[in-house]
Amino acid sequence: MFISFEGIDFCGKTTQIELLKRYLENKGRKVYIVREPGGTVISERIREILLNKKHLEMCDETEIFLFSGARAQLVREAIRPWLSEGNVVIADRFFDSTTAYQGYGRGIDLDSVKKIHQIATGGTVPDITFYLKISMAESIKRQELRKTDLDRIERSNDNFYERVISGYEQLALDNNERIVTINGSRSPEVIHEEIIEKLNEKMILSS
Ligand code: Z5A
Prior knowledge:
By secondary structure, this protein is of the alpha/beta class. The protein is 56% helix and 13% strand. It contains 8 helices and 5 strands, in the order βαβααβααβααβα. It has helices at 13-26, 41-51, 60-84, 95-105, 110-121, 136-146, 158-174, 188-201; strands at 2-6, 31-35, 88-92, 128-133, 179-183. α3 packs parallel to α5 (110-121) and α4 (95-105) runs antiparallel to α5 (110-121). Residues 7, 9-15, 35-37, 67, 93, 97-98, 101-102, 142, 146, 153-154, 187-188, 191 line the site of ligand Z5A.
């Protein structure tokens, strides 16, 4: 069972992933969480380069290859071996993030983005993806509450984020068998309940 979570910054992925992990472990499942970019020694080093706020000169093409390089390593070193042992893998972002941020957000041609995904993942696709939908205003509100320093990507302007949001909307329309849109502006408990409901509906939990 391979589950991914998507959405703009501060949409609540990490919160929901922790709740889901606890739920599945209580049902006796072994659960691994991976975050992107990251999750292996090499991918975490790539993460440092990608998010370092000093690297403002990074061009869009370098950005997409670095995200995809981190993913290629994560898929082969961690995700596939864990899945093949029958475990649950929950990914905090996967290739939909690249389509939304580098494709729709930065404007890299979407056909090229798809080809890069194919090489990076070698065809490994989540069984189900939860897109936690919040508005730009909600994201900014949560970011101000958290009061952490912004990383390089978070320093992108609001127009970029509006394009990322429309990208996620389009992805959800184009992949409605896999991507489930969840209203992320409600309480964490209500969102968690809906996620469990959707997993049961799609019989993902019984596999
Ligand atoms: N990126 C990319 O461009 N291309 C790619 O291919 C990939 C990634 C894979 C990774 O950042 C950045 O890389 C990300 C996309 C880009 N960038 N930006 N900008 P990251 O890994 O550091 O962070 P993130 O993925 O954006 O997640 P996050 O900021 O840590 O947020 P989150 O995991 O979605 O949310 P959270 O930590 O659960 O919650 C955020 C805050 O909201 C926190 O204070 C919570 O207490 C609060 N929260 C959570 N749920 C709720 C609800 N339901 N109501 C109210 N408040 C809530």
